[in-house]
Write a structure and sequence with these properties.
Helix content: over 70%
Distance between the termini: 43 Å
Radius of gyration: 19 Å
Structural class: mainly alpha
Strand content: under 5%
Number of domains: 2
Length: 296
């Protein structure tokens, strides 16, 4: 069955409101959109209701639906807005993932969070390298400088936030090097490195974008919900903070400037790279929850 008209936000918001009423009548807090709205409707819903509101609905269905802004927060028709539409499906799945709902509820197993931090340390090392390589390919010096600063920032997260959170449970820096990158971490970082080196500058920019943007949106969603576990709340606060928000806004401005000079075919190719990265974002959290390792 086809989904509702993407332009009819009133219809989708009406369905969401009825969903909330069902949850309240059932006395349930976390039935989740997955349990009531068909998959197509969930994707359409996240395109017309601000992402933070949809996220809070997923985490807490007792919340009412408010706001009418486009979910990307970008100028309609801009390339960043189009890229967000490409990533909307994986982002909706990310918000429903038990790793993040458990993070917000404070029920995520500590071992899963520690495993995530260990893998994220591996990821950020290569992410920093990808940003540096991408910056070296930029036509404008100011863009090279921007991406170089962001590469330094990614490395600093590993050296500060991760070591702080790992140190809280007695995990030393040497343990990070002793744990190999998981299959998902390896595959995701190879995707980034190969795209920034072999694809166009726009391809590379689109490939690195989901890590910025999805984390910023997830942070804003989770900070509204909060977490009873201090380590989890510390992580949430980092990605919900104004400093990280400013970093994301700077790269989105670059995305829109680059997008103006692209053909439809070039945009489409870059959007496919962004979609792949967005899917890897979901897979990364899923691998952490499963404790993924190499089978042989």
């Amino acid at each position: 069955m086809p989904g509702p008209d993407l332009n009819d936000s009133r219809l989708l918001r009406g369905r969401a409101t009825r969903y909330l009423q069902v949850c309240q009548d059932a006395g349930a807090r976390r039935i989740g959109l997955r349990g009531w709205l068909p998959a197509t409707d969930r994707l359409n819903l996240i395109r017309v209701i601000p992402v933070e509101e949809v996220g809070l609905m997923l985490l807490d269905p007792s919340r009412t639906v408010v706001g009418t802004a486009a979910d990307s927060g970008r100028v309609p028709g801009s390339w960043s807005d189009r890229l967000w539409s490409t990533m909307a499906g994986p982002y909706a799945a990310v918000l429903e993932h038990p790793f993040l709902t458990g993070l917000a509820a404070g029920t995520l197993p500590a071992a899963a969070f520690t495993g995530y931090l260990l893998q994220d340390a591996h990821y950020l090392r290569d992410y920093a390298r990808a940003l540096a390589l991408l910056g070296a390919r930029a036509d404008r010096l100011e863009d090279t400088a921007l991406l170089a600063r962001h590469a330094v920032g990614a490395a600093e997260v590993e050296l500060t936030l991760h070591l702080e959170l790992l140190g809280a449970v007695g995990v030393e820096r040497a343990a990070v090097d002793a744990v190999p990158a998981s299959p998902t971490t390896y595959a995701y970082t190879r995707h980034l490195m190969s795209t920034v080196q072999q694809g166009s500058f726009a391809d590379g920019l689109a490939a690195v974008l989901p890590c910025y943007w999805i984390y910023a949106h997830v942070g804003r969603v989770l900070v509204e919900h909060g977490s009873s576990e201090p380590r989890y709340q510390r992580w949430i606060d980092t990605y919900a903070g104004e400093d990280f928000g400013a970093v994301v806004e700077a790269v989105l401005a670059l995305v829109d400037r680059v997008g103006v000079g692209l053909t439809a075919e070039q945009q489409g190719q870059a959007e496919r790279e962004a979609l792949t990265s967005a899917r890897y974002e979901w897979m990364f959290w899923d691998a952490a929850l499963r404790g993924e390792g190499w089978p042989v």
